[in-house]
Amino acid sequence: MALVVNSFPLLLFVVAGFCTQLYRGHDFPGRCSCHNTIKFIKGNMSDFQVLEKRPGCDKIELIVTMNRPDNATEKICMNTEGRMARAFFRCWERINKDENRKMECIERKRKAE
């Protein structure tokens, strides 16, 4: 019984470490997703996601999905203060936040390049 009681904190530590590693990079409820941002992107964009303010994150976030040359995708957080992000937000508002019309905003970005 003493071995079980003494081993419990170690087991808890290992499980917590595993869960942290498993969910690293995913959106935690109540936390901001974007910690590092960039102002400008160039390349083949396939999707974007606007995360509105929510409990635990008092800012709007813009996550852009880019297609890399090796056919992999990469999610990039954009600085919402930049001109490109503001253009996405204007387009997002113009299409009334309709997920089915997001390609209109992506096409508009491609024409601007």
Any overview of this molecule?
By secondary structure, the chain is of the alpha+beta class. It has a domain at 45-111. Helix content is 40%, strand content 19%. The protein has helices at 2-23, 83-94, 102-112; strands at 44-51, 61-67, 73-78. The protein has a 3-stranded antiparallel β-sheet, covered by helices on one side. A hairpin with a 5-residue loop joins strand 2 (61-67) and strand 3 (73-78). It is globular and about 60 Å long. The termini are far apart.
Characterize this entry briefly.
It comes from Hippocampus abdominalis (Big-bellied seahorse). The chain is of the alpha+beta class and 113 residues long. 40% of the residues lie in helices and 19% in strands.
Structure summary, number of beta strands: 3
Query: How would you classify the quaternary structure?
Result: single chain
Instruction: Please describe the biggest sheet, giving its number of strands, its sense, and whether it closes into a barrel.
Output: 3 strands, antiparallel
Low-confidence stretches: 10-27
Query: What is the chain-wise order of helices and strands?
Result: HEEEHH
Q: Helix share of residues?
A: 25-40%
- The 3D shape can be described as globular
Mean pLDDT: 79
**End-to-end gap:** 68 Å
Strand content: 15-25%
> By helix and strand content, what is the structural category?
alpha+beta
Number of helices: 3
Round the Cα radius of gyration to an integer and report it. Answer: 19 Å
Strand arrangement within the widest β-sheet reads: 1-2-3
GO molecular function: chemokine activity
GO biological process, one term: immune response
InterPro entries: Interleukin_8-like_sf
Protein name: CXC chemokine
